[in-house]
Every structure is written in C-alpha cells, then in structure tokens.
Specification:
The chain is an alpha+beta fold. It is 27% helix and 24% strand. The chain is built from one helix and eight strands.
Length: 186
C-alpha cells in the first residue's frame, strides 16, 4: 500500500498568512478610527446646534414680551405707550421699568439696566443689572428704537442672546431676533 503524504500549502491548503491578517487588521483599524472621528465631530456639532437653538428660543421669548406691551391708540385716537413695565425681572412688574421707552445706544452690546436680563442653563431668569449673577449662563439684551421713517407710530425691537464667556469675553453662540410693532387702535 502506498504511503500518503500530508497535503502541503502548495497543493491547495486554505488559510491566511500572518501578513494578510496584519493588513486586514490595519484596514479595519483605519475604518474604526474614521468612524470614531465622525462620531466626535457629529456630537460636537449637535451640542453647538442645541446651544444656538436655545439662544434663539430665549430671544424669541423676549420679543414676545416686548410685543405684548401696550403700543397703540386709545378710543379717542391718542397714542398709548407702556413706558413703565419692567420686563427685566420675572415675573414682569407693572412699574419700575422702562417699558417701550427708546433704549440707550449700544444696549445690545452692553449690559444696560432695564434692557438686560440673565438666565440659567434651563432658560430660567436669575437676575438683571450691569453684571451677571453667579448662576447666569445666558445674557439677553434688547433695544427699542423708533423706526426712522415713522418714529411716532412704529418701533423696532432687537434682542441679542448669547452664552456668557467664562473668561469674561464677549458672549458666544449668539442669536439675534428683530421685530417691528406699529400702533393700532386698542
């Protein structure tokens, strides 16, 4: 009886060499690193989008407060303007504020009492004034200006909201809302 020789690689034995395994592992690792980088990038972009969305919502809330103040004509056709409501505090008070009085120059860029408030991470009011309280995360500033082409009957609201920079620099993740209000009969 003939003695059978064990099969050799040359005769068709299947398998991978160490070099092939190392190349496959390197390709797999490159792919995994790329996916991990995409995950980190997308997480950072989502966090940034959330912050910008939050500041936009906070700006819109202040615009709605401003628009709710009286600016119209009474039953005799005389102008009615709210010039005393304080919307820099929560809840707003019917006196002690500036209402719809024209704001000083640069009130959007400087914390001007009567035209600024501060909010926490959840958008809750935490204070007002020239300096932010310790719990403040967002600064919300607004301006009220008469429309140059119709100053007696139309006003322009601008609200700028941003995250307070930890180093005391300018706010980040800014959102700006602009609206007009024209006198109407009450």
């Amino acid at each position: 009886r003939p003695v059978r020789q064990p099969a050799s690689r040359a005769s068709g034995e299947a398998g991978f060499s160490l070099v092939e395994v190392l190349v496959a592992a390197a390709v797999l690792m490159t792919g995994l690193i790329a996916v991990a980088q995409m995950f980190v990038t997308s997480t950072n972009q989502n966090m940034s989008a959330r912050r910008v969305t939050t500041t936009s919502v906070l700006a819109q809330q202040k615009i709605e407060q401003l628009r709710a103040l009286a600016w119209g004509f009474d039953e005799f056709g005389l102008p009615v303007s709210d010039v005393s409501t304080n919307i820099a505090v929560t809840p707003p008070t019917s006196s002690g504020g500036v209402g719809l009085q024209a704001s000083p120059d640069f009130s959007l860029f400087n914390s001007t009492p009567g035209y600024v408030d501060y909010l926490d991470a959840y958008g809750n009011w935490v204070g007002t004034g020239a300096a932010p309280p310790a719990m403040a995360i967002y600064v919300r500033r607004w301006s009220i200006d008469p429309l140059p082409t119709n100053p007696n009957n139309t006003i322009v609201f601008q609200v700028l909201v941003g995250r307070i920079a930890p180093d005391g620099g300018p706010p980040t993740d800014l959102a700006r809302q602009v609206s007009l209000k024209t006198r109407k009969s009450i």
